[in-house]
Amino acid sequence: MAEVKLTIDGRQIVADESKTVLEAALENGIYIPHLCYHEDLHPNGGCRLCVVKQEGVDGVITSCSTKVQEGMVINTKDDLAEKVRKLSCDFMFKTHPSECTGCPKYGRCLLASISQYVGDTGRALRELKLRVTADETNPLMLHEMYRCILCGRCVRACGELRGVGALKFAKVDGRMRVVIDGDSLADADCRFCGACVEVCPTGSIRDKVGVFRDDIPREQALIPCSAECPAHISIPEYIRAIYDGEYSTSVGIIREKVPFPHALGLVCNNRCENNCKHKHLNSSLSIRNLKRFAAEHDEDKIWLDNYLKVAPRTGKKVAVIGGGACGLTAGYYLNKKGHDVTVFESKKIPGGHMTSGMPEYRIPTQAVLDEVKVIEDSGVKIVCNSPITNAAELKKDYDAVLVAIGTSVGKKLGYLNKDNLPQVFSALELLQAQRLNQEIDLGDTVCIIGGGNVAFDAAGTLLRMKKTVNVVCLEKDASQASPEERDTALEEGANLFDSHSNEAIVGENGHVTGLQVHKINSFYFHPETRALVEDAIPDSTYIIPCDSIVFAAGQVTGLTEDFGIELNKFGYPIDPKTGKSEYTTSVEGVFAAGDVITGTRFLIDAIAGGREVAELMDKYLGGDGVIDEQLVERKADPYIGTIDQFAEIARHEMDVRPAEERREDFAPVSTGFTCEQGNCEASRCLQCDLRLQIAGPKFWNDYVKAEDEEVNA
Amino acid sequence: MKNLKADVVVIGTGPSGLAACVEASEAGMSVIALEKQNVSGGAANMGMGPLGIGTRHQQDQMVDIDVERAFKMFMEYTHWRVDANMVKRYFEASAGTIEWLESLGVEFAGAYKYFPKSEATWHIVAVNGGIGRNGGAIMNKHMLDRAQENGVEVMYETPAKKILRDDEGKICGVDAVDKDGEEIHIDCKAVIVGTGGAGDSPEYMKERMGYTYGKDLFNIVIPGLKGEGIKMAIEAGAATTEMTVEKIYILPFSDFGPQSVPVTFMQPNLMVNVQGRRFINEEMMQNTTFTGNAIQIQKGAVGFSILDQKIVNGYKKKGLDVVNFVHHVDNIDDFEQACDDIINDPNNPDVVKADTLEELAEKLGIEDVDTFLETVEEYNDMCESQDTLFYKPSKFMKPIEKAPFYAGIFHPSGYGTLGGIKIDDKCQVLDDDWNAIPGFFACGTDTCTIYGDSYMFLLPGNTMGYCVNTGRFAGEAAADYVDELDD
Amino acid sequence: MEKLLVCSCAVNDPYTISSAYLLENELDTVKAGIKKYAGMLGASEIIYFLPEGSKDFGLENVAYGQASPVMDNPYAIVQQLKGNLPRPMIQDDYVAEYEGKEVAVITPEVAYNLAASQKTAFITVTKGGSSEIKAVPFGTKLNEVEDAAGAKAVLLGGLRGKFILPASLADYAAGDDILSSSITVFGPEACMVVVTADLMTKTWMNSCNKCVLCRDGTFQVKTIMDDMPVGKSKAGDIDLLKDIAPLIKIGAYCPYGQNWPNTLLSALELFAGEFDAHTKKKSCPAGVCFQAGATYIILPDKCTGCGDCVDACDYTAIEGKKKFIHMIDQDMCEHCGECVSSCEEEAIVKWEGGKLPKLPKKLTKVGKF
Questions:
Q1: Is the pTM of the predicted complex or chain greater than 0.95?
Q2: Pair (C179, C204) in one structural domain
Q3: Do domains A105-211+695-713 and A409-556 have the same CATH topology?
Q4: Do C29 and C74 fall into the same domain?
Q5: Å from A19 to nearest chain C CA?
Q6: Which residues in chain B (258-287) have CB-CB distances under 8 A to chain A?
Q7: A348-398, pLDDT tens digit by residue?
């Protein structure tokens, strides 16, 4: 496009001939009041605030819809143009509530800011307030249309930008109003993307209070799912890629934040779904299962080349103790940043909890090993069967060491096993034995002590080993576990003894014969001493017959002082400077991350920990600490169009194999989404990130600064 | 983390902050102003103009009010329970400030009363010569323009978080966060706080004054006034003060409806409490502070303004008894329609209508209906003679006879809080044992305790006047302090 | 891009019926003109856009929609074809698109003259409540079309035209401009304030409501004008109208907004006396407005103080108490006469005679006056 030279307020401006006079002015820091114009929308020409004087043309021209021409001379502060602006401002304030007091948009209202700049005229025009009552019946969005000044931005944003058209103009009793094209937003097939809220200058259409957090920056708050995810995966983007059928792109987007898309898709505890805005319509997106769907349909792995590209070697050497999710994640990023990384894994295969702490039917070993292989292919050396006993020692041969051994030692409550009977194992020992097919001497009837997710993992594993399984826990209905985990195991035949407290493991001549328990009404742990306080039911003691016991009562790091770094009394590494478990430890250059400092958390927390400690360690090693990467191209088409009955599409659930059948083997409990289910579930996403594409409100004081800089530059 | 440096940091760019920015920058200081909203001007963008005493406008309009009379009236009104030095300094400087604003390009339409019994001290900013809607905003823009001409850098959407003092206790910096969440540290020698009180924080108002929002106070929430300036100041060692509310009374849910409803119910007719008794000379309803006070102490903090169809028809035909600039309507033709809209709107309980006084009393939840009927009967009799109960002038005594009857349910409200940071009349922030904290200044509503328990409405434009004047005092004081520091 | 030619027959304003007339009587010539224009443009499809409720004149591919002065703007037409309200787009390079085709517009009037040998103006002449079409060659002086003898005022060009005095008809000639689209004659008995108020209401209803100056401008002007015949206007109203009308003409977005103020300004100028009488003295020289209803009074000697009339009066205009002589407050009285029938003593009468008899000023007992 050719360039054009023109003069605005005495200043020589060069602008592309495709630009309008208003765009040319604004881009050069010259403020011309405008309200119905929005840089992402088609010019409208309705508010008349942007009128300016063009030499040689009588009257005024509409700067938002007049293209620049060679040699134009524009005067934005012309007296006639100012008069027209003031009249337009006057008219708008006669139909708008005259009192600003109590208006929630106060301080961010474009109309008030413009009337401050333009100044109304105090003419004795008639008060012609638009009398409409507030409409709070729609989910997510509030319509207080008595504030509306009919600039039409919302209609254009919904129509031409989004291609949905849920809002339109209509004359009601002779007066123009913006109305919903239907009985409700849902009825008008609104996509609830929030574009109308973003462009509305006077707060007539607003997000309902409480939908977004106000304690984090706006860009994060507007995408609640990504904000809640510890690794801040760009969730709307990867779901949109699925909807577009580009599964490999979707995995690429996930991999920009986490190296284990398939593993997370199988076992993540999906906290993001609690914040998904769609739950205000019916229920949240099935974000985790979509991750699994993408991972299981990613044939061409278009992200792989970028994934394997690493920075030139920095000459620094890093040792990672523990080949679990956290260690491998940190290892991948540090290697990517050019450091030479060696991961020491004590067991015979890497993957940590993923391959030895959870049952095969929830997360197949091969799936994990495939994802670990990619990390290896990127240059990370993994050495198995090599437990490290002293981090400080190891530090001597490495520039930095990361302790990421997690909490791989299951607690066995000693006071219950006074006679030290042999058939008493921790859940981790059981799960590890099954996953790594090691021998474990179990009887036929097993009592599991504990009611968390790990307890029901153990129950499922034992059922598949054809054992009779009793889960004994304090919590009513085993509320500690996620309902999904608990019910899967109970359906498969596990017996639940909830609201039970254990007294002792009983045995005869060296063999376990039962578990002595009693019933309780309620319990709590004393805040300071953390001792168990029970409201026991009197003389309810009895013995549950069994021949072996599995403890699922929490895990610990299993570390002692001779590991070479300072620990607190629970065996967690601490930084003496703060006395708290942090990424830094007592030894300079030795870092710690994941469950080993936070206690047993979920897979996503460990991975997020790996990312953060990698950033810290890269800085420590002289790098810039930036590990963000873009692996794939993706498009975010704002024109999303309509989907019939969009708001009513219900959440899809994966097909789960019947209990009798799935009990027989260790194959996955549920088969992932079919393509049809996957695409349809992905179509439900409100694509909250699209709203960030829309330029935020700009006020005259944002431009005036630019003008001054120009003047005294 | 961004690191900046300035002589003076001003927190909040309402009229106080802006005035401080102008004065400090005129005295050659480098100034950074932190504003958490997108625009500057604070609550005053809704106002119409500040107080001035002994100004040229008053002379032209032959208004005889001078500093002495105003000061005496003010101190008597507040029973000398306020800082007389600050009041005297503020009143004395007020005329100069009007001229100072005029030197920045502000034009004034003249000196006005708010209601008949008040003094003509309210200098309403002219909007194209006439009395416009947003005079305050125009005034603020002129101050902002001058501040920016002087090189003041205003950082929008950048709330201050912490005020820092060095180990000698002197002010040395401010921490803030910009709109992308990035932390900013500003090294400075002086800080001026002017963040406009805590009108938008029901929790802090409950903590400091015991009001429960929506029960005994329906505060007009001006978004952003969270009291952060007060809390930051206290955290940095400032002593606090008693906090009060600039009391008014409103129909809480009808702010955005047609103005004909509140304006008509605020006319001086019959006002009763939930026990069915009169409790105020309704002529006082023009003074929103006194009426707010009176309603506050009634049972349930509620007052019912009673009208009948005859009074409404009279207002339609012959105009209202009392008008003012803030609530002006061309006519009240849509009064009945607007009342029906409110009655039919489930979340707006402000108006009640009935065909008999008994039904009206029941709908209002008046405890003893007979007492209410007696009150009305007694009131109607007095309409023929005179108000022997509260001595209301007979021109406002209109009988309540002709059905249908209307009642407007008024609750106490406020434009926001007053006070919170202890200062002296040089706007220096004081610590608990009255020592001025070096480099620490505050102005405006956060510090305004000169009204005692009730806003002094007889000298209108008072709060905006206090803000602009103390903003100037704080700006000068900060500049002097920094100059001394440099020598 | 292919072209679509729309023959818009929905541009006539309430004072003009030429489009319907041409479709009814000159359809062939109009079609010929359209064909010719379509040829010039290379338009492959033609649609006739008719106002709702109009006959289809035997035409195929017809679309219906709202009549509006902006319906000669391609974008406005596209909006209606898509089922939205008509809203014009006035941009130097704007292309209005509908189903992949670029839309161009022609009106029956222009089409006729493209085909006809003799350029003809079809002028709607409205007089005494009836309208007819007068077809005259371009250039004919308007006074030859209609002399409006004895009339008080003539409105040329309907909503977008202006008022003139009958004598000035000779200064205007028939052509394709807006002024010769219609001639509306107002007889000597008309009150020009009421005529203008009615015209402003039509102007408001015909505004497409897209731009502030026309949407809110017409509504403000209509409200201010509606107050005049009922004596509710404010002192500064005339100056206010003279102040804002020229600015609307300059600042409005489309030709409609830039022209309707001419009718108001010409009325204010030609009939300044009538406007002042209404706003300042609340009197109507034409005797149309302020026909104060007859005055009603209560005869002091007949009234027994029973109070029935008080309840009968919807406007609470009657003062009085039991056994006191009741009084009518003339300011409040709306002259509806309901009270007369409510009084069994026939004490309430419509006073025909000029000067009122002596009436009590304050409450006095029956028989004590």
A1: no
A2: no
A3: no
A4: yes
A5: 12
A6: 258-259
A7: 999 999 999 999 999 999 999 999 999 999 999 999 999 999 999 999 999
